[in-house]
Amino acid sequence: MATSRFFHGGLSDSESSSSEEDYSEEEEELEDENQDAGEFDESESSEESDDEDEDDEDEDEDDEAGKTAQGQNRSSIFKRGAVDEEDSDDDGLRRVVKNKKDKRFEEIEGCIRLIDNAKKINDWVVISQEFDKLNKLVAKGAQGDAVPKLYIKAITDLEDFMNETIAKEKSASKKMNATNAKALNSIKQRLKRNNRQYETEIDQYRNDKDGYMLEPDVEEETSVQPKPSVIASEQIEDDDDTRSYSVVTRGGKAVQLTRESIFKHLKVIVEARGKKNTDRTEQIRTMERLLELAQAPYEKIRVLTALISTRYDLSFGVLSYMATDQWKAAEAELNTLLRVLEDNPAWVIAETGDEVEDDEKVPPTPAPGEVFKIPGSIVSFVDRLDDELTKSLQNIDPHTTEYVERLGDEAALYKIIVRSQKYFERLAGNDKIGGVGDSLNRTIMRRIDHLYYKPLAVIETIEEASYAFLASESSAESTHPTLQKEKPAEVVQKLCSYLYKKDTTILRTRAMLCHIYHLALRERFYQSRDMLLMSHLQENIHNADVTTQILYNRTLVQVGLCAFRNGLVSESQSCLQEILGSGRVKEHLAQGVGPQSRYSTITPEQERLEKQRQLPFHMHINLELLEAAYLTCSMLLEIPAMAAAGSSPDQRKKVISKTFRRMLEFHERNVFPGPPENTRDHVFQAANALAAGEWRKSCDLIQAIKIWDLLPNAESLKQMLSGKIQEEGLRTYIFTYAPYYDAVSLGRLAEMFELPERKVAALVSKMIAHDEIAAALDQINKTMVFRKGVEVSRLQTLALALSDKASGLIELNERVFEQKSQSGTTGGFQESSTRPGGGGRGNKPRSEFTEGRGGGRGRGGGRGRGGRNVQFSGERSSKS
Amino acid sequence: MSEEEVQAVPEATPDVADGVTGEGISIETARKYDLTPKIMPYLDRHLIFHLLAFMREQQIYPAEELLQNTYDLLEPTNMTDYVMDLWKQIHGKDDLDVPREFLLKREKVMQEWNALQDETAKITGLLENPDVISNFRSDKMQNLQFLKDNHGVTDDMIDALLKYGQGAYSRGSYAQASDILYSFRILSTDSDKVNQATWGKLACEILTVNWEGAMEEIQKIKETIDTKPFLSPIAQLQQRTWLIHWALFPLFNHDAARDTILELFFSPNFINTIQTSCPWIIRYLAVAVITSKNRGASSRATAIQQKQFKDLVRVVRQELYEYNDPITEFIAALHLDFDFEEAQKKLGEAEDVLRSDFFLLGSSETFVECARHLISEAYCRIHQRIDIKDLSQRLNLTQDDGEKWIVNLIRDTRVDAKIDYKNGTVIMNHPPQSVYQQVIEKTKGGYFRTQMLTAAVAK
């Protein structure tokens, strides 16, 4: 083995550029190598010839198995040793390695023996198993570059034997059993694929069976090309390391990087992808160096795509996230990649690109005007980069500075997204490329995802930054005719409208929801509500995927908050009801995992999924604020309603917010209520005060809630709230104390509730007109006169309820009948179906929020009851 | 042809100082609530012409501008003589100075017209021939076949008929166009073209003030819109919007059509269209509903009116954030906020708006009358004792008129009320509805309806 090296060394020019430091380091390394090559001169051993460079790969593979394995392991030892600078460790490690190597070698032999045995009895199941094992061992030992000769012999023989068997099998009268045949088939395919890798060796072996095996283990010298002067000095050092390493280990594969070999290295790396025991950090380092070597755009693009995907491979598993430095490196490389693509419009990365089969060939050079496609997907890079950031934000404690720092990276990410959007826009405009698929839509959606929940000022900053970045970065202005400053107020609208037009998938739905959310955030309540209602999302959101449902919930809640800020109490209540009333707010908004339900046990799998869905902290909607808004709205609606219902059992049942009632009851059960501590205490004490007619106290309590300060213009909000409390207080007062009055002067009421008299008159008139109270106004005395004798007894109430139910029943029956016989309705029925409150409610898009919701997620009490009624009426009609 | 949208919308110029027109309408209010620019995109040129003519009479906008707008509007049409007149008016010159292109255009139009006439001469001749007509059956295909077989009529000739009709319409001879389009519809089997012809005919009927004919066409178009499969809901919505705007002409000019059109507007599809694409129609809807109140005698008519009024209040409430004018605000003040002072104020403004609106001019008197009714109705419902003086004031009447008004009101609506002459008050008696009465009311129709149902099920 030594001879060949010597031989090569004699032929080659001596390496001249090695520096002193390297020299000494290499010497250390040399001393460690006790078996072989020790006596060789440093400079000699690192010789290489230029012409050998081409063959170096092939020859490597010819190496004797054990040596190669050792060489490989040494390589890693060396790396470690170089870092640690600890000789003792090195020694220990090496010994272990040696044992391992030997062991593996034995194992390989054992496998081959077993295969031979199995061949004799024609047992393909065993052969198949052993073949797998063998492959694994070989792959473990030699990472794709050199394989033991034994192995080559074994697979060649196996192939021959297999072909023989297949030939026999065809003519044989008695077929082999099914499992055996299946194993044979599978091995046939695998063997073919496998052997293709080793074609040269197999040929060599075939040509000269005995000679091949006897041939001494040729130690291949890896060659180092004299470095081109353009390479930076550190590059030189790196190369020296590897070179010196190749010397000592004899037959180890030295990573020698030249411009010409870029594609070869890339191929090796790409093939190793996904395999076990691949050292990804090592690969990344290699590729980083390759990148520096790469000059032509094609080379750069190829290296960058491989490099970025390898970086992504570094983190796997659902819960782990990419290290920040790796993320930043990937971000920078993606930027470079985009830049290369921008500067060289002739190169395009497309998912439909042709796979490059032969890297040996000279890379194609596109003719002017021609476009060359390279397989790959920018959009998936962007997606992954985004997802990794989200993942890390999910995992970092949001109350640390680390989180804030990480959040700062979002700006960089946003720039990438905008940049790739521009890139895709350019591609989409070019008909030679043949469309970009949904890439553009996906990128735009990503962009919306990063914008929609932000206030205008933030959008403005981030947009400006990305604009400045793009304007300075893109050297080729001509490729960016579309680049222009977006108006922060319009950017979301613009992006969403694009998706409305161009997309038909779930992205459109998501864009719509984001748009609505954004509008709600900007206080456009009516616009956002109309969009929400006209989209008819409520009807089919239950079929959407979970993340979209979460987005829907977020949107709904945001619309509710918007209504609250605008003083639209009942609208806000009905928006918030579904989510807040469920008691599982956290889950619905993906802002944390709530307490486990008693009835459902969540599998770890589900739990993991749920964790994955969690939103990063900065996107959260403040839950306390939500609750405060919801409870306050409920209070303003419920307290007068409860007062109006009085003690009548029938009306008592009409509950607006079950959650509120339950909590109120709980609160009332407290014997000694202390001073309010949290938001909830404040609201419920305020509710009690309001019910008792003490509007001022109620007002003070509500205004003392600290969370309001989170909202913009908290002062006007508080004023709005106290105004509402005054009005509702007046209504509650009238409802509660009507039985004790004969007449009450409007002036007195106005004084009590500090409202203008006109307002009081309007409020009271409204109540009278809606038959909420039995009273009339006396214009002369300016008083409200209560009518007596309108109280109904319990029996009368029940009779009224019964008659209500009966007419409802008839209505339902008719509707059911009408549905069954769509066309064959008689005149009488038609007339009754057009009665007020009859059918056709579903057609109106502007009905209340709660309409058309299924009982799936929310309470859905109304629908459930309706269902019962239908059943009941069905029975009745069959009886009659 | 009717589907063209007119882009040239005249813009209001603010340079005329505030003032009052000849009829005492405040220009500011009139301009603020002028719906013409909103309505115009949904009308045909020839229909808009009438709106502009009305505006010229109103003197709300400078006359020269309107003249120019009218000129721009009609220029693409074939009414060359009239356009020429307009040009002369604008430029104040004599016949001699008319630019050559006008004459050229007139020439060209005449040629085209004659060509069309020649092309269709045969088929129009056939259609006037009683022998041919008598052979027609109800089946279109059969008729067409008959004509093809016996008289050598081709499809092209029929299509030429449509063009001929369009030409006639463009020249302004609406009655003729209407006839031609009618014949075309009898013969053509191309549903798209028939649809076009129907729109054209509707325009002709409106322009020739033939309301019965217009109503027929409206019904036809409505059916096509409802039944025809549209490529996109937007196209359907647009057609409905057009129809709604066009139907405004008969709505306020033909009393018999009012109920039908109101019913049409209140049907779920159309009320949705109004809410989504043209909320300003609510003004017309409101005026139509309010003015038709108390007109119907039968209890069924009043029931429908009550329902429509309820619907109206609902729609006004829902759209208040998107559209408001004194009329909708009047309704909101009266029925949502019960603020009578505000309602009274709005009523005054509404009157001005009505009088400056092309469609509503004729209804303003009735509207004010009916609105008073509404106010006093709501007032009486809430109050127990009312000062006549105060009520009269709210109704914009003198005390004596107010008293008369109240007496009439009590007599007409059979309210349980009495006038205390000495104190100058009206005392309303609101007897609480007894529970027994309520139960009886609720269960009244039950038996009959159930019986009908049983009968139907048994069938």
Order of H and E elements of chain B:
HHHHHHHHHHHHHHHHHHHHEHHEEHH
- DSSP summary, beta strand count of chain A: 5
Low-confidence stretches of chain A: 1-98, 216-255, 824-880
Uncertain residue ranges of chain B = 1-23
Protein name (chain A): Eukaryotic translation initiation factor 3 subunit C
GO molecular function (chain A): RNA binding; translation initiation factor activity; translation initiation factor binding
Subunit structure (chain A): Component of the eukaryotic translation initiation factor 3 (eIF-3) complex.
Subcellular location (chain A): Cytoplasm
What does this structure look like?
The complex is a heterodimer of chains A (880) and B (459). With 880 residues, chain A is mainly α. Chain A has 39 helices and five strands. Chain A has a three-stranded antiparallel beta sheet. A two-stranded parallel sheet of chain A has the order 1-2. In chain A, strand 4 (775-778) and strand 5 form a beta hairpin. In chain A, helix 8 (149-171) crosses helix 10 (199-207), helix 22 packs parallel to helix 25 and helix 37 (794-820) packs across helix 39. Chain B has helices spanning 27-32, 36-39, 45-58, 63-74, 80-91, 100-128, 130-134, 140-151, 155-171, 174-187, 191-207, 211-227, 233-253, 255-266, 268-277, 281-292, 299-319, 326-337, 340-355, 364-382, 388-394, 399-413, 435-443, 446-458, and strands spanning 383-387, 417-420, 425-428. In chain B, strands 1-3-2 form a three-stranded antiparallel beta sheet. Chain B has 459 residues and is an all-alpha fold. The A-B interface holds A 526, 534, 758, 761-762, 765-766, 768-769, 774, 776-781, 785, 787, 789-790, 792, 796, 799-800, 803-804, 806-807, 810, 813-814, 817, 821, 825-826, 828-829, 832, 836, 840, 843-846, 877, 880 and B 268-269, 271-272, 275-276, 307, 310, 318, 321-322, 337-339, 341, 378, 381-387, 390, 423, 425, 428, 430, 432, 435, 438-439, 442-443, 445-446, 449-450, 452-454, 456-457. Strand 4 (775-778) of chain A pairs parallel with strand 1 of chain B.
